Amino acid sequence: MLYDELHRLYHQPFFDLIQQSRAIHEEHWSENSVQLCTLLSIKTGGCSEDCSYCAQSARYNSGVDAERLMEKCQVMERARAAKETGSTRFCMGAAWRGVRAGTKRFDDVLEIVRDVAELDMEVCVTLGELGEVEAKALKEAGVTAYNHNIDTSPENYPNIVTTHTFDDRLRTIRHVQDAGMSVCCGGILGLGENTEDRLKMIEVISEFNPPPESIPINSLMPMPGTPLEGKDPVTAFDVARMIAVTRIAVPKARVRLSAGRTQLSDEAQALCFFAGANSIFYGDKLLTADNPAVAHDLGLLEQLGLEAKKSDRSQQAPDPLPERPLSPEPAGKV
After folding, report:
1. Residue 107 belongs to what H/E stretch?
2. 37 given a catalytic annotation
């Protein structure tokens, strides 16, 4: 969806926008289900990148210590616990710039993925930059989705990260798509961007080919010691508007209400579900940030009459759209 249309949608009266997004949501998502995803940091801290929002960067005194890759038995214990409490997708994140085939750490991750896939859970990983070989290996090991957020607009990206480029992000996403994995790609609100940046971010994501399978909408949780420490939180209305616009722009994607839910009341989260969110990260921790407790989330879903989506590893990645090019394109076209 082009920027001008996104701008028109976003700037209309709030209730008009929510009514439109709700109608789109009901057209494409008739069941009252929410995908429950658990996120585990399998390798924390010590990252060489300078993402200004991230406490795991080795460049900042955030209090997060560098740790080695978790042992497979530890990861499996957490994956089984996630499944027992209702999660159907297990997401594993590692604080690396990227991974390379033939290295021990990549081989170790592949072994972990194979075992998690045996639990009949959807498997998502976020490991930084990927090449073609690495993407294919992850797909063969059992990864169903790869998370690689673009964070913000192409124009604002250099203000947030300098150790890699926006096009580097798009290149990894292209490799993921070519390997046949689903793409989970969204952004973060509250990085010092303006509304134009937020809409340009959605414009880029909506033009992916194939479309993203899921789109996380995160709100910045300012971490001590990072350059964005002390930033004012985004409002619930900011989050709801972006979820509504995202739902309209990419109707068939799961829109994930992600980081920052601790800053939202139950009523605000209910508004976001009504606007089109149908996925959450579930569990007490999001990498290094707090997340609402499991029991509280289950209680909220019960009050709203929402059910947990069942796991479906047979679901294929979205098909490419024939009218769009499949080759790598400049920023904004993937």
Report:
1. helix 104-117
2. no
3-10+37-308: in CATH 3.40.50.1360: no
* Structure confidence by residue, pLDDT tens digits, 136-146: 999 999 999 99
34-88 confidence digits (pLDDT tens): 988 898 999 988 788 888 888 888 788 777 777 889 999 999 999 998 888 888 8
- Characterize the bridge pairing of strands 285-286 and 307-308: unpaired
Q: Which of 8, 22, 37, 47 is catalytic?
A: 47
Given 37, 54, 185, 272, the catalytic residue: 54
Q: Considering 184, 185, 241, 261, which one is annotated as catalytic?
A: 184
Of 37, 51, 185, 272, which residue is the catalytic one? Answer: 51
Q: Can you spell out the DSSP letters for 130-180?
A: --HHHHHHHHHHT--EEE---BS-TTTHHHH--SS-HHHHHHHHHHHHHHT
d(CA 332, CA 334): 7
Q: Clarify whether 73 is annotated catalytic.
A: no
Q: pLDDT per residue over 98-144, tens digit each?
A: 889 999 999 999 999 999 999 988 999 999 999 999 999 999 999 99
Tell me which residue has tokens 């209305």. 237
Please list the residues that pair with 217 across neighbouring strands: 187, 257
Question: Per-domain residue ranges for the chain?
Answer: 3-10+37-308
